[in-house]
């Protein structure tokens, strides 16, 4: 019992240190790649404290309990019971036989990886989003929106990471150290998630994929959630003014284009009238010329 408690405490302390340190690394990389929120001017200590708290109170104890439990669940892939040939009459006596061949070992590892990625990672990932949202002070609706927006992409990328990682973990690491191995990998995993979501929310492109003006950041739900009502009203007023200005510009261009079309139509009508008048006069002149002279001779001349 004491051994189990010491292991849980050890895993919790290590998880707290690694989660907090990983958040510090993530914030430095966000600043380096200019992915921080626009109102952030220094290191967000509160965020680091939240991640440290999650590591100590949630991730450490859960991971420390999960891997020994998974090891017990898959015990049937490590042992077989064979019936003893000479047994007591009326009683069947079995002998426990350990399966240590590479084939049985790989079967056990495969089952553990399958169980971990299908039955543990999805609820643990959901718990991560819920707990971090609650520590940020978000409401239930905001936590739900955050979880639904981030879960599927995180789980998809997580499969690419945890399938090979857990294969190595379950094959080479002893059970009591598997949680430590996962906590170390979580430093890089949580850093990647932080960069991924900050690039989406605060990157140089908005959700439509259009490049923004240099220095301008597209407002996202995460950014809007941090703004006050007065700031949002001011932003809404500015957008309305821009919309009215763009509408007036479009109407003015349509009117100018309409005047140009009318002017071109008038010029074409006037030009066609001039051509008709000129063509009629030329015909009369030609006919008059024919009456007066044919092949250089008078009209009444007969050969």
From TrEMBL:
It is found in: Membrane. InterPro entries: Mpv17_PMP22. The chain crosses the membrane at residues 49-69, 124-143, 155-173, 179-197. Pfam families: Mpv17_PMP22. Residues 277-286 have a biased composition (Gly residues). Residues 257-303 are annotated as: Disordered. It comes from the Eukaryota. Residues 287-296 have a biased composition (Basic and acidic residues). Residues 222-249 form a coiled coil. GO terms for cellular component: membrane; mitochondrion. Keywords: Coiled coil, Membrane, Transmembrane, Transmembrane helix. It is a multi-pass membrane protein. Belongs to the peroxisomal membrane protein PXMP2/4 family. This is Uncharacterized protein. It comes from Rhizochromulina marina. The lineage of its organism: Eukaryota, Sar, Stramenopiles, Ochrophyta, Dictyochophyceae.
């Amino acid at each position: 019992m004491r051994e189990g408690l010491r292991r849980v405490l050890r895993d919790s302390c290590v998880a707290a240190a690694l989660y907090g340190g990983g958040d510090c690394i993530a914030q430095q990389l966000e600043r380096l790649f200019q992915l921080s929120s626009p109102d952030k001017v220094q290191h967000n200590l509160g965020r680091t404290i939240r991640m440290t708290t999650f590591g100590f109170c949630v991730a450490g104890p859960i991971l420390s309990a999960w891997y020994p439990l998974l090891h017990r669940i898959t015990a049937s892939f490590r042992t077989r019971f064979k019936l003893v040939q000479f047994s007591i009459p009326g009683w069947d006596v079995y002998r426990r036989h350990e399966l240590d061949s590479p084939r049985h070992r790989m079967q056990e590892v495969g089952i553990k990886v399958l169980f971990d990625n299908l039955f543990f990672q999805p609820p643990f990932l959901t718990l991560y989003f819920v707990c971090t949202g609650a520590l940020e002070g978000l409401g239930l609706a905001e936590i739900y929106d955050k979880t639904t927006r981030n879960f599927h992409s995180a789980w998809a990328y997580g499969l690419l990471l945890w399938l090979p990682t857990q294969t190595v973990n379950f094959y080479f690491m002893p059970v009591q150290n598997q949680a430590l191995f996962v906590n170390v990998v979580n430093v890089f995993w949580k850093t990647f998630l932080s960069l991924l979501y900050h690039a989406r929310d605060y990157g140089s492109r908005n959700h439509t994929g259009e490049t923004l003006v240099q220095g301008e950041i597209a407002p996202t739900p995460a950014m809007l959630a941090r703004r006050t009502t007065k700031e949002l009203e001011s932003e809404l007023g500015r957008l309305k003014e821009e919309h009215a200005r763009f509408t007036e510009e479009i109407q003015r261009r349509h009117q100018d284009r309409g005047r140009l079309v009318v002017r071109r139509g008038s010029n074409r009508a006037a030009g066609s009238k001039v051509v008709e008048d000129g063509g009629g006069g030329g015909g009369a002149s030609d006919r008059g010329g024919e009456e007066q002279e044919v092949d250089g001779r008078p009209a009444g001349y007969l050969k």
